[in-house]
Amino acid sequence: MERLRETKGITLVVLVVTIIVILILAGVSISMISGDNSIINMAGNAKEGVVIEEEKEQIVLAYTLVDEAEVTDKLLKEQLQKNGNNVTVSYSEIASSDDPTINIDDYVFENQELLVDFNDTNHKYLVDIEGNVSYILDDVLNSSTDWAKINYEIKTDDEGKQYCVVTGLKNGISKTSIKNATIANKYKGVPVTIIGNNAFMDCSNIKKVVIPNSIISIEWRAFRDCKNLKEITIPDSVTGISTEGFLGCANLEKVTLGNSITKLPSYVFYNCGKLETVIYNGTFCSTEAELKAAGITSIGENAFKGTKIIKE
Question: Are both 210 and 158 inside the same structural domain?
Fold first, then answer.
């Protein structure tokens, strides 16, 4: 019996060796079979890719079956569940707050993306307001609740009309703690129209700023010394940026100016060392002459001093 076991063991070893030799002779290496870029792994990835595409198609279909003007996390989830999907749907970034005194119903956010999580496959997707779907990885998913750190103040103008000003961060919030400044376009039903003086000055860790189409004015030193901000898009609703609005944003590389801005004040982008491209009226401008040709009527003293924008 013992000799029989040995014979079977030897036969199995010979069989395995024979298969490996045949594969090698056929030009197939062991790494091609079992490595990171192996045939087995590629087959698995291909299968997962098919699943991802199928899930994306289901989201697109569900989105089209919901009235576009009424798409919410609840309605999209209900539509997906009708097809037997085990999903969680929430708003990306603006999901919740750990502070029990913060009520998300007081805020209205513009262009808010929905996050769809297929629980069985653990695949996650972002859905924008036009129904476009993109697959995302966990390591790039932003679950920040920084929106709750921003303070709003409701004011009344001379005609008795209410408007809202972003005054900065709430009391007790460290300026270095905020990384994503997502600004609401309404707070307690009142339009947010102004980013006030010094609102985000010295918030050195801010990497992303979302300015809604309700904003009309960006005031003095609003984003001064936001040293980690790399890119900013200013919507067409903004008619003016005050002096030193983005002064000292050392890593700012690209600015997209809304078409309602015709004048740039002094020191607005002073010492933004990496800034080399400003988009205005759809034109990529790298010199002050190009900005004026694109429609900017005046540029204040030292507006771009200390940047890569060349003064001409």
Answer: yes
d(CA 83, CA 64) in angstroms, rounded, equals 14
pLDDT in tens, 210-234: 999 999 999 999 999 999 999 999 9
Q: Which ranges constitute the DSSP H helices of 26-109?
A: 30-34, 39-64, 73-81
Count of structural domains, the chain: 2
Q: Which range of residues forms the domain containing residue 102?
A: 49-140
Q: Which residue has the tokens 């103008």?
A: 157
Determine the Cα–Cα distance for residues 21 and 28; give it in Å rounded to an integer. 10
**How large is the angle between the packed helices 39-64 and 73-81, nearest 10 degrees?**
110
Q: Indicate the pTM of the whole model.
A: 0.70
**178 and 288 co-located in one domain:** yes
Q: Which two tokens stand for residue 10?
A: 């030897």
Taking the C-alpha atoms of residue 311 and residue 127, their distance in angstroms, rounded to an integer, is: 42
HSE on the CB side for 295, CA within 13 Å?
13
* Alpha carbon distance 249, 181 (integer Å): 15
Q: Are residues 107 and 156 in the same domain?
A: no
pLDDT at 5 over 50: no
Taking only the tens place, the pLDDT of each residue in 31-73 is: 555 555 555 565 566 778 889 999 999 999 999 888 766 788 8
Q: What tokens were used for 89? A: 């749907």
